[in-house]
Amino acid sequence: MKKFAVPLLLMMISLLVFVMVSFLLNSRSGIEASTDSSNIDHVRYKVTDEQPYRTSYHFQPPQNWMNAPMYYKGVYHLFYQHNPYAATFGDKIIWAHSVSYDLVNWIHLNNALEPSEPYDINSCWSGSATILPGGKPVILYTGIDHNKHQVQNLAMPKNLSDPFLREWQKHPQNPLITPPNEVEKDEFRDPTTAWHGKDGKWRVIIGAQKGDEGKTILYQSEDFVNWTKNPKPFFATDNTRVIECPDFFPVYINSTNGVDTSVENSSVTHVLKIGYQSNQHDYYFLGKYVSDKENFVPDEKFTGTSKDLRFDYGKFYASKSFFDYAKNRRILWGWVNESDTTQDDIEKGWAGLQTIPRKVWLDKSGKRLVQWPIEEVESLRDTKVSITGKKLEGGSTLEVSGITASQVDVEVLFELPDLESGEWLEDPSHFDPQLLCSKQYASRNGQIGPFGLLALASKDLTEQTAVSFQIYKTPNRYLCLMCSDQSRSSLRQDLDKTTYGTIFDIDPNLKAISLRSLIDKSIIESFGDGGRATITSRVYPLLAIKKDAHLYVFNNGSQSVVISKLNAWSMKQAEIGHEGSIKCA
């Protein structure tokens, strides 16, 4: 594969690694290990292949929660954390490391960072990477020091000629940043990718907490080693507690292309993403950033309600974006945890996975971001079936047969009736999409909708996960409610079956609306209206597994809708394994 040189413009490559949990070495899970404590790399795992909920084309190491890529010399890197000794969060979290040429097939390498010094002896936690002038990648990461304080450290690759960056070394001046007085010493973490201001100084923000206030703090440096704190918080919210996993980057106003992290001019607006550990949701704000004033002014304030913008309205957290200069795009990844029990995780030997990487750009309205699965995932498409021009009367279902419904990529375009026939909504300000979607919403009868897909469904529909739309009209606009209803996803009772929902404006002249779902055994990623709204779900059916899983299109509205075009592809399994065991080119 062609290797891309780093241009003179400083290319910021991002990664964020969130704390991950690995799993108990339990014979029921099929995990085998050698636990030579003198070298953590000796710990090796083998998870049994015949597990109905283990995904086929999403990134999953054998036993981790994981997050975050970067790009260097033609290779994508994913660093992730895990505890190699237990099924719960532990006191020796390390950085594992995998690489890919296409963000789909992955090679596991040896660990990148392990606790070894007083400043990280109790764990190597989250961090981000930046590529310095001359094409040198560096990592800022949070260490848990000997006092259990959270401090920020620097690591560099030992061999820049190795595109896999197999070995890393820690800077002799670590820790570079220690908790300031105005934050809690054990709530100060997750440095972002750095960016260059117009004054030539590097800038980075770090998540923190003081009392019930969550905040991000900005630091500046001329040499990437000596950092000075800005006196004012970069962003703060009351009664939210700690902000973690922040991200900050520009997006073009009039282009779907990505843009380097340091760009600051009239052609871009900026995105600040924050995560709240209290509810494990990622929120983002669009706004104006002026580096010489260290001032970010969001277009909208945080309200703590459904009005706040989120990357994904389902299970999606600790996300991180990076600028992929090879293909001139910004890519976003999110971490998705489990919805079953801790005991289930122990017995199956793993927990957590990554979403499919998503290209992200600013919607033409300028009011939200758009996300779409990267084009590389289409290389896994196999058997295809299509449906065109099929009318769905109210109360009808249609099976999409001929594909492997437990691992499928499906895109459908619905032709809509006149929007004036949508259900009336007098005051949308009191409209809570999460609450409405939680009332077994897909089974009720509306006017235009609910209509959509029944994913991972049993033949008799006893088990089903409904991903649906319903159209509403208000005094001055039209709205679309998008739901992912897990209430009937499984006959099992010991699961989190939270149902998710969001609502968004639609064009009054809209004639059709699209839905794409990536279904992979226990995860459903859904993209509504071309990616203007996204919902990710985890489900664990008892009946609808492997060859007994089915996929349906449905319409429960009184108005008919038409399947203008539906394409569904069975998905092949991605190649994910240790170095030497697979060819990932």
TrEMBL record:
Keyword set for this entry?
Answer: Glycosidase, Hydrolase, Membrane, Signal-anchor, Transmembrane, Transmembrane helix, Vacuole
User: What's its membrane topology?
Assistant: Single-pass type II membrane protein
Transmembrane domains' residue ranges: none
Give every Glycosyl hydrolase family 32 C-terminal domain span: 376-570
Q: Name one Pfam family in it.
A: Glyco_hydro_32N
According to UniProt, the reaction catalysed is:
Hydrolysis of terminal non-reducing beta-D-fructofuranoside residues in beta-D-fructofuranosides
- Locate the Glycosyl hydrolase family 32 N-terminal domain: which residues? 58-373
Q: Which InterPro entries match?
A: ConA-like_dom_sf, Fructan_Metab_Enzymes, Glyco_hydro_32, Glyco_hydro_32_C, Glyco_hydro_32_N, Glyco_hydro_beta-prop_sf
Record family assignment: Belongs to the glycosyl hydrolase 32 family.
- What is the name of the protein in this document? Acid beta-fructofuranosidase
Instruction: Supply the source organism for this entry.
Output: Vicia faba (Broad bean)
